[in-house]
Design a protein that fits this description.
Elements: H1 2-24, H2 26-53, H3 61-95, H4 98-103, H5 108-138, H6 147-168, H7 170-174, H8 179-193, H9 205-211, H10 215-228, H11 237-268
């Protein structure tokens, strides 16, 4: 029991450390939040712009705005989780604490648990702020939306993106100079095939087949049904279970691969800070 309490305390310590990092770099957080709000609004205005481009014929601009708003917010939430996890190595290296963290007598799953829990909390708060601003500017009516269903879909998606993020965090560990930039390839491919800004069925057949293996595809479809159509939460199960399965598969694989990469990095001296 004492050992379990110690693991929980260690997990909380990692969460607290991340919170302190946000406080330390608060100006950057504000700049990034402002950028994210502007980016979300810019994409969403495309919906209204289509009414002008299409001459107002057969184009429901308000629905397009909602479609793009949901896609933008869900994608921001999921990608934030991914980057918070993949950046753990880069941040440790930048702070000069990577050797202490990876050499400490702490289970790696405890370390990752603190990182992932913080990433979910941070991403929910950040996305909630952007949603509030977007709703106010576009005067969006959410009275018919199933907000709880949307939250369930996003939390289910968190599990799968945690797994993908742990796998991606191996790259900064193995490639100190450009590993963090290499993780962008993973997120870019998922952005392409998951239907963030357009339906998946407009993609070529090969990319549609790739979309089946992207957890974001199911999260986006399920969240749109919940928020745009008001679909009951239980009816979202066909979209929930694939993301849960992907997460339950990806997380153990990610921890195993990270363990292999960590031992290799220690053996070859790749833990030191560069620059």
């Amino acid at each position: 029991m004492a050992a379990l309490i110690g693991e929980f305390r260690a997990t909380y310590a990692f969460m607290e450390r991340n919170a302190n990092l946000v406080k330390r770099y608060w100006s950057w957080e504000l700049v990034f939040l402002a950028y994210s709000i502007a980016n979300s609004l810019s994409v969403s205005f495309i919906g209204l712009g289509m009414e002008q481009i299409g001459g107002g014929q057969n184009v429901d601009g308000r629905y397009l705005v909602l479609y793009l708003v949901v896609g933008t917010l869900v994608w921001r939430y999921l990608s934030l989780i991914f980057y918070w996890i993949t950046d753990v190595i880069g941040m440790e290296r930048w702070e000069g604490t990577i050797e202490y963290t990876l050499m400490a007598p702490i289970r790696r799953i405890t370390h990752m648990a603190g990182q992932t829990l913080w990433s979910v909390i941070y991403s929910l708060i950040s996305t909630g702020i952007i949603l509030l601003v977007t709703v106010l500017i576009f005067d969006i009516d959410l009275t018919r939306a199933n907000l709880w269903g949307g939250l369930v879909m996003m939390l289910a998606g968190s599990l799968s993106f945690i797994g993908v993020g742990i796998v991606g965090s191996v790259l900064p560990l193995l490639f100190p100079e450009r590993g963090s930039q290499m993780t962008h390839v993973i997120i870019a491919l998922m952005l392409l095939v998951s239907g963030v800004y357009y339906p998946v069925n407009v993609l070529p057949d090969a990319l549609q087949k790739m979309a089946i293996f992207s957890p974001a595809t199911y999260v986006l479809d399920g969240t749109r049904l919940a928020l745009l159509e008001g679909t009951p939460t239980l009816a979202l199960w066909p979209y929930v279970w694939p993301t849960l399965v992907m997460g339950l598969v990806a997380i153990p694989i990610g921890l195993w691969v990270f363990g292999l990469a960590e031992r290799y990095a220690k053996r070859t001296g790749k833990l030191h800070r560069n620059g």
